[in-house]
Design a protein that fits this description.
Length: 149
């Protein structure tokens, strides 16, 4: 399994950063460059415990769908999401929000495995880990900009 952690301080309260991280519209905005859209959203338009969502996007020129579930919601400290159907053999994203003197320390830990066994492991080591790290960093830039501006 490939894994990485990103940390970022955002000038907003943990409750504000937590809420923004669960906002489906902000997620779509942050992934606009990849043409990501929400095919099937959470009931009521807001993520809550057990919410599922299906995204459509294009990466490496290949269109795909990814369905995930949101779970372990502990406002305003933490929540997780994981793929339940999609291109990865496994994908788990833990979101953590801790108080910081300058606002909130947001920590994303991503654990994933590409399909195709040993070939997927090589792909993860050679470029997928870095690609995913940049993708989450871009998402976090949009989230921070929305809260700090």
């Amino acid at each position: 399994m490939a894994q990485f952690t990103l940390e970022r301080v955002i000038r907003a309260t943990p409750a504000e950063v937590f809420a923004a991280s669960l906002d489906p519209a902000l997620h779509v905005e942050s992934m606009a460059r990849y043409g990501e859209t929400m095919v099937k959203g959470p009931d009521g338009g807001v993520f809550s415990e057990g919410s599922t969502v299906t995204w459509r996007a294009r990466h490496f020129g290949v269109p795909f769908h990814l369905s995930s579930v949101v779970f372990d919601i502990d406002p305003p400290r933490r929540f997780c999401d994981r793929q339940i159907k999609g291109p990865f053999a496994a994908f788990h994203h833990e979101h953590m929000f801790d108080e910081h003197p300058d606002g909130t320390l947001m920590r994303d830990t991503i654990t994933f495995r590409s399909p195709f066994g040993p070939i997927g492991s090589v792909v993860d080591r050679l470029f997928m880990r870095e690609y995913m790290r940049r993708l989450i960093d871009e998402r976090n830039n949009v989230l921070a900009d929305s809260l700090e501006s």
